[in-house]
Amino acid sequence: MPARHADAALTLYCLPYAGGNAATYRGWGALLRPRIECVALDLPGHGRLRATPALADWPALIDALLANLDPLPTRPFAFFGHSMGALVALELAHAIRERHGREPLWLGASACVAPRERELDDEHPSHWLACSTAEMVAELRRLGGTPDELLADAEFLDLALPALRADFHLCANQTRRARERSIRLGCPIWSFGGTDDSVSERNENLSAWRHETTGGFHQRMLEGGHFFVETAREQVIRDIAAALHALAFATATHADEPAYPY
């Protein structure tokens, strides 16, 4: 994926939550430029790629995303993922390390239970692919963020559930991959949590992200529920910009540039 803003010094790839798409990050680029280029990615079956089949297999998904990123930028890059997007970011980071010998400068994991704290259901590994529509609707209602009128709309469910089933299946099966992996990343990881999000009720859900890296860990709490990435959008962007600035631009001597570009 060629750089669209050649003057940027760093590329930030953003991954959406289950059932979401790149539109989640609309407007982020304008707030992060000129030094940080924000590239929001769609998964197959989502957003701009909704005409392609959603993928419920991790290797196939990572292959598809890496093909979309080819060639990787020569400049430093970072990942931010919200909810399921954090797991996708982690898998992408490991795949890039294994295939290209590079790592992200930073990884942000937002509103996501750490891989080693997620429940592993060996008896029903394909539960979300086979469960009833009613159970899918109940889970979406529990998570919040989807209006009741849409959950009662049969046409909407027919369109949305195939991708959501694939996404939920991926989330349920990523834990096994994490537990079987012996190598940790070397980049700093920041874990973001919402004060009113059920993910944050148990602190270890967030703090256990520290086990995914040898490169430092920071935990940040923001006001809001599971979708604080939208309700606390400006604060999230400020935090990301500050973290990336400290890592990538700490030696900059341009007196006319702000401490972070927002």
TrEMBL record:
Looking up SUPFAM superfamilies in the UniProt record yields: alpha/beta-Hydrolases
Q: Which InterPro entries match?
A: AB_hydrolase_fold (IPR029058), TEII (IPR012223), Thioesterase (IPR001031)
Q: Which GO terms describe its biological process?
A: lipid biosynthetic process
Domain Thioesterase stretches: 11-243
Superkingdom of the organism of origin: Bacteria
Kindly give the Pfam families that the UniProt entry links to this protein: Thioesterase
The record ties this protein, via PANTHER family, to: S-ACYL FATTY ACID SYNTHASE THIOESTERASE, MEDIUM CHAIN, THIOESTERASE
Record-stated family: Belongs to the thioesterase family.
Name by which UniProt lists this protein: Surfactin synthase thioesterase subunit
Q: Which organism is it from?
A: Paraburkholderia tropica
